[in-house]
Structure formats: structure tokens, C-alpha cells
Amino acid sequence: MTDITEAQMRATEDIIGRSEVDDLEAIMSVVNEDWDSVSHSVHSDYDTVFTWDYEKGQRPKLDKLYEKAKKAQWNAQTDLPWETEVDQEQLVVANAVANGGFNEGIDVSGTSLATWGDKEWIQFGVESQNWTLSQFMHGEQGALVCTAKIVESVPWMDAKYYASTQVMDEARHVEVFNKYLDEKLSGHYPINAHLRMLLDDIIADSRWDMTYLGMQIMVEGLALAAFGFMHQMTTEPLLKQMLRYVMSDESRHVAFGVLSLQEYYSQLSASELRERQEFAFEAAVRMRDRFLQQEVWERMGVKGNEVAPLLMQVPERKMFQVMLFSKIVPNLKKLGLLDAADGWLRERFTELGAIAFEDWVDTGEEYESLQSTPEGDQVAS
Ligand SMILES: [Fe+2]
Ligand SMILES: [Fe+2]
Asked: How many Å lie between the centroid of ligand 1 and the Cα of residue 141?
């Protein structure tokens, strides 16, 4: 039985702004029109919490994570082979050869893509790299500010300690993606509108656990899967190594979310859990929406609306979109969010085609196997 009333349940339209999750026209109509701005402010009303209980190790799993993080620091400027030459066009060709062709298997006949030759597809590949790494960088800044907020708002000392190490990690991630974009690629993209909406929602929420849920569980859970995918696909050695280090940090961050929220969510009521489920669903949809790369198509002179339905027909792309949830779904299950409130979130992830991941290993268990240092050693536990 649940204590949720009809009135408390929000319809899909209230949560994500459209009634059909796959309404491509609605997705493509959300664009960032603020391309030239140099800053963006989000208002947030929340309590900064002091604790007078300084005893270290009251939450042994968080304490262990903190000790690991101290040993796993690396230097973005000196621990990576920045002397590596990157020829972006050659890289696009090499990646295409390694991964099965330029046009992702899209049937382009009768569309404006039918006139594209190798030159256009290579240019598209170059823009796509610029876009992807730019979005990673913006997401990293989101993680930086969210985690700084957690340092202030979480009531437990072990969590404040751990979060402070994550703030340092995220500064390094912003630094490393920005350096790669500046020195190895050929242009930045502004933040994607769907990603910005999500980061705004996470930051604007006053409840400390929502920062964790939005950032550590959803955004970073997806990032861990996306970095892993790119790490596997890329033939560029500097990027590969960079992603390996970043993933090592990210796995700790996601574990931090799982280990912290597990305790907190065990005390919440069904209606409070339902709010968390809706927030997780909104985040999942926003993150999926951004992968249509609408800004890249526009820059290539192609209408996003024309190309979106073509993209959705490509089996590999569908599989990629589902794979993005491979870390998130087991973690939500571990937190009890898949099955709380009569399994509302289980139904949503079933509709998104990602429920099969529910029994994959969760990051609270897995993170130790993903740790590495610049010396290539496993970090001792
Ligand atoms: Fe990060
Ligand atoms: Fe992170």
C-alpha cells in the first residue's frame, strides 16, 4: 500500500513538458538561444548546515571512499601525454573505419543528406567531437558546483570530507576537457539546452539529497557509461588515457551518491520517494534528449527536425541510448527507487527500454575495480 494520493502524482507532461517521451518535434524545439552569454545564474534557496559532531568514520564506507580519494589525485597538466599529436580529420576517419562507417547506417535517400560525400561526413565527425567534448566539459562544471553545494548542505561530516575531494576532482575534469578542446580539437559549443535545463533543476532544488540524486546518481551515472563507451570506441591514445583517469574518479563519485542516499532513502515515506522517482525520470529523459546533437546538425546546415526521425531508426543509436542507463538503473534499484511507490519508476525505465540493466552490478560495489592512478596501479584499499 502507498500513501500517495492522485493529486500528488504528476503526469508525464508536468514532469518533462510533453506527454510523449519520443515526441521528436518537441525535443528538437528546445534550443539554447543564449549562445553569446558568458555566464548563467541560477537561484537556489537552501540551508547551509554546520555539524558539531566531528567524529571521523561514523559512516565507514564514506570514510573509506575519502581515504581512497586522497591517494587517487592526479594532475591534469603533468600526468597526461599532452605532446600527442591529434589530427582531428584523420581521427574521424580512423574511428569510422574501426567502428563501421561514417553515416551511422542512416538511410539518407530522399533527404538533404543524400548529397553528402566523405568531405561532409568528415566535417560532421569533427563537429560532433567538438560538441561531445564541449558537453562533457559543461557537465563537469555542473558537477563542480553541485558538489560544492553538497559540502555546504549535507549534514554528515564524513560526507562533507568526501565531497570536498570531489570538488577538487571536478575542477580537474573541467580543466582537462577544456585543455583538450583548446589544444587538440577545433572549436567549443555552448551548453545544450536539455543539459542546461537539467543542471538548472538540480541546482535550484533546496533539498540536499536532490543534488546527489540529480548529479551523483543521474548525470554522473550517465557520464560513467558515456565515458566508458567513448573510451572503448576512440583510437586516440591521449583521449583514451584521459577518459580512463576521469572514469576512475567518476566511479567514486557515483559510489558516493549510492552510499549516501541508501541511508537517507531508507527513512523516507512513499510520497517522498515518489517525488524522487519523478525527478530521476525527468533527468533520464533530459539526458537522452541531448544526444540527438541538434546543434551539430544545424551547424552543418541540416534541419534537426529532418534528421531526428532518421537517427531514431538506426539500431546502433537506439542501443547506445539504452546503454547510457546501464549504470543508472542498478543504482536506482539499490536505492529502492525502482520499486518504491508501486514500481512507478520501474514502469518508466521499462518504457525507455533500459530495465534489463536492473541486475547489473551497482557502483557502490563496482567502484573499487575501476580505480587507477597515473602510475597505473590499483589504489590500495
Ligand atoms: Fe567529473
Ligand atoms: Fe564526477
From this structure: 8
Determine how many CB atoms are found less than 10 A away from the CB of residue 334.
21
53-87 pLDDT, tens per residue?
A: 999 999 999 999 999 999 999 999 999 999 999 99
Which ligand is the nearest neighbour of the Cα of 146?
A: 2
Write the DSSP symbol of residue 190: P
Widest pairwise Cα distance in the chain: 68
Q: Which ligand approaches the C-alpha of residue 216 most closely?
A: 2
Q: How far apart are the first and last CA of the chain?
A: 42
Model confidence at 139, in pLDDT bands (50, 70, 90)?
A: very high
Determine contact, residues 336/284, Cβ cutoff 8 Å: no
Instruction: Find, among 127, 106, 122, 142, the residue nearest to 187 by Cα.
Output: 127
Residue that the C-alpha cell 514500481 belongs to: 343
Cα 368 to Cα 211, 216, 221, 302, 372: the distances in Å are: 24, 17, 15, 44, 9
Instruction: Give the whole-angstrom CA distance, residue 276 versus residue 204.
Output: 15
* Residue from 214, 224, 230, 236 nearest 362 by CA: 224
